[in-house]
Each structure stands twice: as C-alpha cells, then as structure tokens.
Amino acid sequence: MNTITDAVVIGGGIAGLQVALDLADQGFDVVIVEKEPSIGGKMISLSKVFPTLDCSSCICTPRMAAAAHHERITIMTCSEVQAVQRVGEHFSVTIRTRPRYVIESACIGCRKCEYACPVLVPHEFEGNLGARRAIYVPFTNAMPQVALLDVENCTFCGACARACPTDAIDYLQEPAITEMEAGAVVVASGYALTETQTADRYGGGKLANVLTGLQMERLLAPHGPYGRVLRPSDGRIPDTVAFVQCAGSRDHSLPEGQGVPWCSRVCCMYAIKQAMLLSGSLPLVDITIYYMDIRAFGKGFEQFYQNARAMGINFVKARVARITEGENANPVLRIERIEEDGRVEDQPHDMVVLTPGIVAGWDPSSVIPVQIGSDGFVLSEHASLAPCRTRVPGVFVAGTASGPKDIPDSIVEAGAAAMEAANHLRRTAYASRRRTEAEAGGR
Amino acid sequence: MGRVDRITDEHPMNEQKPKILVLATESCAYPGADYVGQIHASYPSNTYILRVPAPVIFPEAFYLRCFEKGIAGIIVMACGHECPYEGAYDRLARRVAVVRTRMRELGMDPQRLRLCSICTVCARPFLKEIHEMDAFLSQATTGSVTT
Amino acid sequence: MTETKRRVGVYVCHCGGNISDVIDVQKVVDGVANIEDVVVARREMFMCSDPGQNLIAEDIAAHNLDRVVVAACSPSLHEATFRGTLKRSGLNPYLYEHVNIREQASWCHKDDPEGGTRKATRLVAAGIAKARNLVPLDPVRVPVTRAVAVVGGGIAGLRSAIDLAKSSFEVHVIERAADLGGHLARPGRVYPTDEPAQDLLTGLLAQARSLPGLTLHTETELVASTGYLGNFRLTLQGPSGEPRELTVGSIVLATGFEHYQPSLGELGFGMSDRVVTLPDFIERLDPRGPTGGQIVKDGKPVQRVVFIHCVGSRQLEGVHVPPEGGRLYEHCSRVCCTTALFASIELARKFPQVDIFDVYQDIRTYGRGQEDIYEAAARAGVTFFRVAGDAPPTVEIDASGAITVRLVDLLTFNEPIEMPVDLVVLVTGMIPRDITPLIEMFKLPRSPDGFLQEVHPKLRPVEVCVDGLFIAGACQAPMDVAEAAASASAASAKAACLLGGDVISLDPFVASIQAELCDGCGLCLAECVYVKALTRAEGETVPVVNTALCKGCGMCAAVCPHEAITVRGWEIKQYDAMVDAIVATGGHP
Ligand SMILES: Cc1cc2nc3c(=O)[nH]c(=O)nc-3n(C[C@H](O)[C@H](O)[C@H](O)COP(=O)(O)OP(=O)(O)OC[C@H]3O[C@@H](n4cnc5c(N)ncnc54)[C@H](O)[C@@H]3O)c2cc1C
User: Is the ipTM of this complex over 0.90?
Assistant: First the structure.
C-alpha cells in the first residue's frame, strides 16, 4: 500500500467522509482510518433524520460510496491510529489494523460464511436487539462489504472456511502496522453515548422496555431488528411510549459514564423525530415527551416542533426522578412536573426511551498533543474564528469530535476542516513537494 | 425488432407469468431493490428491473408501447420527494396520471401502471408493490380483469 | 434500431456460487450467444478478479470488441471496475453495460432457479440490446476562471475570502456599506471567547488586507450577472459611479441577516427610551459604546432589568400580529438565548446591585460551553420566569414613564406576576435581510422562513440551486460567529473543489438535440425551468443545451413530440430496445 499521503482523516463517520471528499475533490490524497469494520459512523444506523425526515441510509450511503470509489481516497477499516509523530512540517502516523480473519481483498461479501456459522450473538449494530453470527458482514449496507470474524465468540468449527467460495477466511491473520507519512491530520472520531440506562434511577439497565435513543432508531428503521416497533419484553405493539429528555444530559448528579452536565444538543430533535415516526407507523400510540426546555434551534427545527405538537404528541415539562417496573413489565415513571400544579405522580408507559448524554468518541490527546476541554472534546485554536483548527498546526477537527452536533452542522464543519487542511497543505507545499519527489523517485 | 427475438430460453414458452417491468431510480429505488437482494428476500421472478436516473424521462407513449409489446404491468419506483431533480417528481406523478387516463380510454385497466416511492432500505414497501402487482396480474390473466 | 454492426462481448459471472448456485450460468451464456452482434459470450468464476478482467482485455484485443456487457453483482459495486477495464483496453468506458443478476436475480429467486435463470437471460439480452445502442461519451468540460466573488463583507464573507485567497484564487469582496465587518463592527463582547467583537474583526481585516489577490470593494454593489458556473460575468457599481465588469468562476453569497426591529408599541418598544433591543443593549454595555458602558435611568444606574426572549422569533399565528405588509417570524433565532444570558452575566458583573429578570419559553443554550453560561447566569442571580408561547408577557408604560411587566409564570404554577422595572431588553431575533435584487438576479429560492434555501441541508448544505453559487453565514439561517465562520469555510471548500483545475469535468449524461428532427415547437423549453439549461436564441428554431448546467433529468426528452432530444447514456430508444429483449418470444436459432 501507498504509505505516503496528503491527509489522514481519523474516523469515517459522516464528518470524516465529508472531510475526505472535500479534500480529495481539491486534488489531495486522503487516507481514512476507521476503527469499526465499516465506514458510516452513527449516521448509517439512524432511521430517518430531522428536520427533513429523509431516510438516513439514503443520504449516508451515497457519501460512503463516493468515498469508497474516489481514486484519491483510501479507506482502512478495523484500524486505529496508535501514534502521530511530528517530522518537520509533516507527520508520521502509525496505524494498527486489527485482523478480520477474512482476507479483505478476497472477500466478495456474499455472506455464505454467515449462513454457515452456527453461533448466534447479540448484534451491536442493532443495539443488541437482534442477533448476528460469529462471522458476519457488519450490517447490510456496510462498506466495504467484507465479513469479519469475531474471535471472542467463534468456536473454530471451520464451517465458514468450508463455505467460503474464495478461500478468504484466514484464522491466523495477524494485526498489521502501517507507517503513514502525511502532511495533515483531521480528527473526526465522533461521539459515544453515556450508559445512562444503567443508572439506578432509570432501573439499572434491567428494565427490558426501557430503551436508548439509538435502540429506538433501530426499531424505527425500515430494516431494523424486528422490522417494526415492538416491545423487547413480549413483542407486543406498545400503546403508550414516553421519551425522557435530558436523561443523561444537563445533570450534575449522575456519575461519570452515566450522564454529563452539558446539553447534548440533538436529543430534543431526535426525540421529536422519533415521536413523529412512531405516530406515523402506529397511529394509535399515545406519546409523551418529558422535557426541561425544547431546544429546537436549527433551521426548520421550530416548525418541526410545532408540527409535532399539532400532531397530538404530548409535551410535558417535568423531571423524571426514577423509573421502576410495574405490571406487565411496564416501566413506571416518577414524574415531577415543573409546570401546572407541580404535582409528583407515577406514570406507567408500555415503553420508555432514554436520551443518553453525548461524550467524545475518542481521546486523541493519547497520540497527538491536541488540547482537550474539561468536557473531553477537542478544543479549537479559536472557538469563534477557527473552530476546526486545533492548537497543533496541521491537525484539524470536524464533526462531533469537538462537541455534540447534528448532521447538518457536522457536515458544514467537515467542509470547513477540509478547507483549513487544504490551505495548510498548500502553505507547507507538502503535497506538491511529495509529488515531485515521487516522480523523481519513479524515474 | 426482428433481431432480438433470438434469445434462447430452454423452454421459450414456459414463462406463462405476465411480465412486470420495474423502472427504478438510480438513487433510491434501484439500491432499494439491491437491498432486498442483500437480505435474500424473495419475490416473483417475472420482474425486470431497469435502472433510470429519473423516470420523468419517459413520454406517455413509452408506457403504452411497453404494454403493446407485451409487458403486463409497470411499476415506476421513484424517490418521491427525495428526488434529486427539482420538479421532476411532480411532473412524473402528473404524467403517470395522464397515462392511466389514456389506458382507461383504451379499455386497459389503469392498475397495470403504478407509481410509488421506494427508499434505499425500503424492503417491505418494495416487496408489497411487487406482490400486489403480481397478484393483480395473475387475477387479471384468469379473466376477471381486463388487461 | 442500430444498423451498424457491433462487436459485443458478453461475460456472465458465477460469483463463486452466489450467482451460479441459483442461476444456470451456462444456460444464460447459451441463451444469449446467438443474439446478433454478440461475438463472444463466456462465463467465469469471478469477473471482478484480475483473471476475469484480463479475459475481457484479451477478448477486446483478440476479437476487436467494441461493446462489453458483464452480468454480475450490482452496478454499485463493480460498474466502475469494468468501465476501468475498458478504458485500460483502449475503449471508451461508456461502451460498457452492467447487468445485475446477483442482488436482483440469484439472491431474490433462490426458490425459483428456473425462473431466475430465465430472468437473468432476458436481463442479459436487454443489456446486450442497450450495449448495441451505446455510443462513446466524454465528460462535459467547462473552462473556468480562477476567481471568486464574495458578496458581503461580514464575518462570513471575510472568512471565505481569506480561505480562498490562501488557496491562491483571485478574490473580490463586494460590500455595499462603507465599512467592512457587518454586525461584528458594532461595539460589544461576543461569546464564547468573551472578547470584543471589534477585536475579532480587526484581526480578520488585517489578514484580509495582507493577502495578495484579495481585493476589498466597499460601497460597491453587484448589479448584474450573466454567464454560469466557471465564468460569471458580473457588473459592479462602485462609489465612483462607473460600472465595472468582472469575470469570476464562482460566487459566494454572504449577505448576512438583519436584527428584528419591533414595531411601535410592541412590548413597549418606541414608547420609552428604556425599552431597548438586545443589540442596542450590548452596545451600551461596552465602554466603547454610545453610553460609555453606563446603563442609567434619570442619571442613576438602573436597579431592575428584564430580558424578554423571543421577540420577533417563534411567533405564532393568532398570538402575534405581523406589521402591515410584513410577515410572522416563526423560526427560532438560535443565538439569542445565549447572547442574552451572556449579556446578563456581564451586566451582573459590572453592576452587581442590579436585579435581573429573564422571561423565556425555552432556554436554548445548545452549544458547547453554553449550558455553562446558563448556569453562570443563574448563579449570578438572574431570576427566571417561564411563559407559554401563546401567552407572551405585556409591557405597560404609564404617564410618568414607569414600566410594568406582566406575565403568567409557569415555573411557579401559573402565578400571575406584575413587576416594575427600570429597563426592558427585548431579545430580538435574526431575520432575513432584504436582498431582493440578488434573489431576482440569480432566481434564488427562499426557505419558508425567508432565508436563502440550500439544495439539501445534509447533502449540499452550502449550495443553492444555481451551480457555482454558494452560501455562507447567516443569509442561510440564524447562526453565531463560529457557525458563520465554519459555514463560510465550507463554502470556500466547495468553490475550491470546483475551480481547482483549468476545467471542470462533469458527467456526460446530458441532453442532446438532433437538430434535423426539431421543428421548434418549444415544448422542451417550458420543461427546463429549474436549471435553465435549454435556451433558444432570437430567431432560431432549435434550442441549445448548456451542457454545463444540464443535470440530465430528461424532462425535456419526455415532451419532445419528435424524439429529437435524448439524454446521453440513458436514451429512450435504448430502453425500448431493452424492453423488446425482455418480451422477445424466444426460440432456438
Ligand atoms: C439517537 C440519535 C439520533 C440522532 N438523530 C439525528 C437526526 O435525526 N438528524 C441529525 O441531524 N442528527 C442526528 N443525530 C446526531 C448524529 O448522529 C451526528 O450528528 C452524526 O452522526 C455525527 O457524525 P460524526 O461523523 O461527527 O460522528 P460519528 O458518527 O460518531 O463518526 C465517528 C467515526 O469515527 C470512528 N472512530 C472513533 N474513534 C476512532 C479512532 N480512534 N480511530 C479511528 N476511528 C475512530 C467511529 O467508529 C465512527 O465511525 C442523532 C444522534 C443520536 C444519538
């Protein structure tokens, strides 16, 4: 593989993909380093997206395909950046690729191995609501369409190797280290969610019908684990669904890992979106959103919110103090109203959706000396004028790696990061110099 | 059109089932049909899916020609309001309505032509459309509907 | 139907059993081998592998093939691969046709191998029929001028201009006012960095002035534009009076927003000099501002200040009344919650004795660090009242000039509140600026909120429906300084992608007109109203296609009574040929 490139983009979510495309279209070579087996990030698992309610896959897959097919973009999946060393004005990036135990260039994504595998384990992509095999293509529209073997759960029965038409299974594959020289690095490592559902007050993770926002996304997706919205405990269609806003955000009392003090920025809107999608697919369902403030601040968001109100979705300004389990595995919410008469009451619902807090997906300061805020997200050089430039020259940041953000804002920032990185490469003349050198060396 | 008739099916006459032509948009419905294949969902094999950037390109006469040539049913699978070409979807919808009126005038059952929106992961709606058209056409060939 | 002889090569892939386990690939090969023009028909285990591709290359050389059909997986996976094979073998890549017999045949007809085989055969026959009708295509190439005009010299315009000048484009900033900087030029501090806005501006301006190739035109307006992406010919009207011509490859619109101006009497506005808008208040807080940083009433520092949110934002029909000829502003202005809280903290810091009240519907401190600002305001002693959107507060000013605010507070369970205050700060929203001449010049669509409408909020957030035109900053929607800067750089990136080379290379799938078939009826012209790629010069019969603008949607082709228009690569006659193949009755040759 070519081990010299112009820019290394860390993270192949929607932000990383857009950075890569906007750099490649300006003529720079880009390597995307993605730790998961597929690019696409969180967005590829979402159902439909606010505020336009268009299908997330339909917006995300063309971007994934454009990056995968771009002649200037190389994608490394199952890969992580281990070290970044500054060498003069450029960087030496050490990338470690985990074994898939499937030869990437040989696999044709036919899934014969998957059909042959006897092992069933919960599927992370489906929020553990569905099952997958021990060898599997990460999800249906994954890119690349290449299987991987989960050694933790594999019984080494050999069924997959026998089924594979291209002899792509390699049980002995070793991790690979790539040393990549690059002129710029863009951190687009995205976000992760707090384990808010495990908080004692929300049932300690033991209540079957208490879901997270991402699990609800999967239930609502046309290609989700059940194909429709059903209660995990008994497969029944829910009659009443509640959303608990700020369950893991704007909260100083939850321990680290379960909640965060800041606003996670997208939860109001995705709850409203999910509520609208729910009432579209289950017209009789009764939906309540418990909230503190509805933060419908983006373009078209307020109208989206008003439409939801007009559709009959109940908005109740209240804090949810705790969730317990009642009859029929119904979660019971202890509600403290912040309006009307301020009464405290117990409300049973068939299903409850919690909105966890959004935290940084990765701490890049372990490998690059970028500054990290007290919130764990990357700090920029100047929060107003250069939001995508970190304090390390040549290192840029895009998307939710610098704080919670919705897709439109992540994509716009990605464009900005690409512009900054391109100008850095031009200023240091890194790209042109290395092309001249490559040409001279090629002779 | 004498030249294409030299396709050699082993039993050329054995496809008794009426043929369904699916005009699927490149950005939504065609990948949607791929998705159905990827999840190995099955549907009748008398369906012929053609990729098209925007089905608004087809004039009314094209649909009528297809029926004349022997296509039993046509499903136009579009992107709906996610259509990448401004104004195209509304025009398409209008045109399909016009063709259906024309079909009625010609004594054809307008249900042989359908327009729907299929997204890239819309397996269920895709299968529903195909199965409904297939069921309708089978019923039609047994004589209860005019085709 | 084509009369010319073609030499078609057909390849059917087993895909290692993925196709051949269901479909009898040999039967497919046999079934199409005798179709006219088919020179070779083969099957292979993996067409996409090197041996598979080499097979095609060898056949092209050995058999002089001029059209190639591969039946394999979905075109989304390998259409580009095989176009590349043709290119490497010296054939135009568009003489290739891909047939999908995996995702759309073998995988969905597992229980019907015979039907699947029959279908695959006919699909391949249809592919051959299309291939015989393919013609070589070349990408559309549009020459470009490596220059950009940025309309508007506020933060977004300057940011965008600096980015592009650094990328060594010639950049012209066109600013209507005498001074650059837009709203940033006013006194006052800005969050989150808590620094004077004017300092931010000074830095930016110094940078802009230092960059070669960046020209700042103040007191100048864009008055006319002709041409299209790659080469817009602009007319500028400057202070000297002489119009000036300028050719640019792309345009960035960064015309910003306006502050909502309350109407006379709206919440006491205009009835007392102690009812002020938030931007005016922020200016007064600044020592460089008009009051030297003093907030006074009758010469004495004020004691009680109330901020009222959502003035000119989140307006509701039936509750708010638009001014004569005006409109309701139903959108949220995004930045005013944080701006107001930030100002109240500064007020509390400078004048600790002041009682501060804040009347809101929802506090929308959504951004990074903004929740801290909200919490700091609460710690600074701000008292919050929450009102319902359909029950806004009222402001009464009596004959003595005393101000009373009345509201129903939801936080204290609908308690009616009546409070005398010394100063009312109306937290006014951001509204679209009137840029009617530009909107008419470029025929730009607006969103329901009146701001400029992007093509798609996620796929193309900084593009508008006019190719080569980009939008930056608050002309698109309310946003804060950081967000405007990011959107400006994103717009710069798009312009840099577009104008990077000497030519722009576009997809070849565009409309083309066969002049001898055209009778000049003009129906096509009436279809092409969105991208306006079809035009007809005075006195001419046949329209011309501007291939730089044409998107290949085919709306024109559908209405042409003489089939004089086709879309290259997707011609109706190709579809007809495919349908013929699908319905062909068959028979042994
Ligand atoms: C339940 C839910 C619903 C939502 N709904 C919407 C919606 O409707 N509309 C909307 O606009 N937004 C929505 N969002 C927000 C949306 O998900 C984000 O805005 C968007 O996905 C951010 O993209 P990103 O690329 O910044 O981050 P991510 O999607 O997190 O991508 C980051 C990528 O980086 C990879 N990565 C992380 N660390 C490393 C490393 N060390 N090395 C290599 N790779 C790494 C990750 O694997 C991942 O692929 C929703 C969020 C949630 C939680």
Answer: yes
